[in-house]
Fold this sequence. Notes:
Elements: E1 2-6, H1 10-22, E2 26-30, H2 33-42, E3 47-50, H3 59-67, E4 74-78, H4 83-92, E5 96-99, H5 104-117, E6 125-128, E7 131-134, E8 139-142, E9 145-147, H6 151-162, H7 170-178, H8 188-200, E10 209-212, E11 216-219
Parallel strand pairs: 1-2, 1-3, 3-4, 4-5
Antiparallel strand pairs: 6-7, 7-8, 8-9, 10-11
Helix pairs in contact: 2-3, 6-7, 6-8
Amino acid sequence: MRILVVEDEVKAADYLRKGLGESGYMVEVAHNGIDGQFLAQESEFDLVILDVMLPGIDGWQLLQIIRRKSQVPVLFLTARDAVEDRVKGLELGADDYLVKPFSYAELLARVRTLLRRGPPREVEQFQVADLQLDVLRRRVTRGAERIVLTNKEFALLQLLISRSGEVLSRAQIASQVWQMNFDSDTNVVDVAIRRLRAKVDDPFSPKLIHTVRGMGYTLEVPE
């Protein structure tokens, strides 16, 4: 899931990018309101984390711009702790308001709550054969065995299992997991698939990840 962080304090923005990234989210950062407006209007996000005091366009103004076209969940994360500021933020259309300094555990809990509310609600659990993926708990199991994946491996498996039975091209996979245009000279997708197979397929039967020659990859129960 994609989160836009609009935060002018570089250290705070880096902290959020690192923490949310380690929690499995894809994070983009803008350091001022104008860049935040551009990203919010040009890309689709599942959640926006927004500071109030921003250069260019402040957080109040940016929220109003976002709300003209989008109901994406917005969490204000700001040092402005006055009651009137909280009320203003919520009345302008924010979904939550958290005051700095904050506990990362509380922030993460609020992020997850907002993402569960967001329309349309994301499927939280997937299962194909005995392979299970729990999105919110970041847990993968096959049979009774827990499988530990890196963030990219988890994102790759989530993509494959969420579209089980579809053949996904390398370009589709590269775009959705790495947000990159696929370069035929790179084997990043093939290498990642090989590593994923080693964890979720090689020790088990039946094999679920299949190569479709000349087309891409699919995850399904073999006929």
